[in-house]
């Protein structure tokens, strides 16, 4: 089984049981109804994550069993327990369809899909130069995050790529948001968040370039140069690599200003 790496293709149909329920993967795995939220952990959480990540498509039983390292009989029990936890008494939310199971929800019922859609809109607006729209969409996208994705679930190797993809999109959203802030003249406000972002990702070059620009525009030219030489040293010491073109060009531009 190869879970889809493109955007989730969640079904558009609604059933009575799915109406009013939503799910979260951008943090602990949760199910929500109204003001009530339940954390789904352990094997139930893993099963739910598998169904949600496959975007509403039918996931073959054998593939689920492989991901969960389960025998078929154990898997059937896990499905039963998950349906009970979700109140899926008529088995319409988690639908059994040969050769496996499908979860019937729409995109707006899953935080990951909402995040993807808002982030895409923000990325497009940023590229088009519509900075107010970009910042609004990217802030809304990032607000979907509650913590480490798929928290509370022991992930098989096959799902770890999904987590990496989620985290990469989040970083791209943070980078574009801060770049938009700077272009809007909000460079001083961007500095604290960029300091945290670069500390968390000491070898990621783009946030360092954005951070350098924010510091320079805030009148902290020496600090901006220190950021540059610090990451150059780390890249050399840890990766035996030189800074890429964006970092070099940003540094050259700033020392000319």
From TrEMBL:
<dbReference type="InterPro" id="IPR005158">
    <property type="entry name" value="BTAD"/>
</dbReference>
<keyword id="KW-0804">Transcription</keyword>
<dbReference type="InterPro" id="IPR016032">
    <property type="entry name" value="Sig_transdc_resp-reg_C-effctor"/>
</dbReference>
<feature type="domain" description="Bacterial transcriptional activator">
    <location>
        <begin position="110"/>
        <end position="255"/>
    </location>
</feature>
<dbReference type="Pfam" id="PF03704">
    <property type="entry name" value="BTAD"/>
</dbReference>
<dbReference type="InterPro" id="IPR051677">
    <property type="entry name" value="AfsR-DnrI-RedD_regulator"/>
</dbReference>
<protein>
    <recommendedName>
        <fullName>Bacterial transcriptional activator domain-containing protein</fullName>
    </recommendedName>
</protein>
<dbReference type="InterPro" id="IPR036388">
    <property type="entry name" value="WH-like_DNA-bd_sf"/>
</dbReference>
<dbReference type="InterPro" id="IPR011990">
    <property type="entry name" value="TPR-like_helical_dom_sf"/>
</dbReference>
<keyword id="KW-0805">Transcription regulation</keyword>
């Amino acid at each position: 089984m190869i879970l889809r790496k493109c955007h989730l293709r969640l079904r558009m149909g609604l059933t009575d049981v799915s109406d009013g329920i939503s799910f979260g993967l951008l943090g602990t795995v949760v199910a929500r109804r109204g003001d009530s939220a339940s954390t789904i952990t352990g094997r139930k959480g893993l099963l739910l994550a598998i169904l949600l990540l496959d975007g509403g498509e039918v996931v073959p039983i054998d593939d689920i069993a492989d991901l969960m390292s389960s025998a078929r009989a154990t898997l059937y029990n896990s499905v039963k327990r998950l349906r009970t936890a979700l109140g899926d008494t008529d088995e319409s939310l988690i639908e059994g369809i040969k050769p496996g199971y499908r979860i019937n929800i729409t995109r707006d019922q899953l935080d990951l899909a909402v995040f993807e859609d808002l982030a895409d809109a923000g990325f497009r607006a940023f590229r088009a130069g519509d900075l107010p729209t970009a910042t609004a969409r990217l802030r809304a996208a990032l607000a979907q995050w509650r913590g480490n994705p798929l928290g509370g679930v022991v992930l098989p190797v096959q799902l770890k790529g999904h987590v990496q993809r989620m985290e990469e999109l989040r970083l791209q959203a943070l980078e574009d948001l801060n770049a938009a802030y700077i272009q809007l003249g909000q460079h001083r406000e961007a500095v604290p968040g960029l300091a945290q972002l670069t500390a968390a990702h000491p070898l990621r070059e783009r946030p360092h370039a954005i951070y350098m620009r924010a510091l320079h525009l805030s009148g902290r030219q020496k600090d901006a140069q220190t950021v540059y030489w610090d990451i150059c040293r780390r890249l050399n010491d840890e990766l035996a690599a030189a800074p890429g073109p964006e970092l070099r060009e940003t540094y050259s531009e700033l020392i000319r200003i």
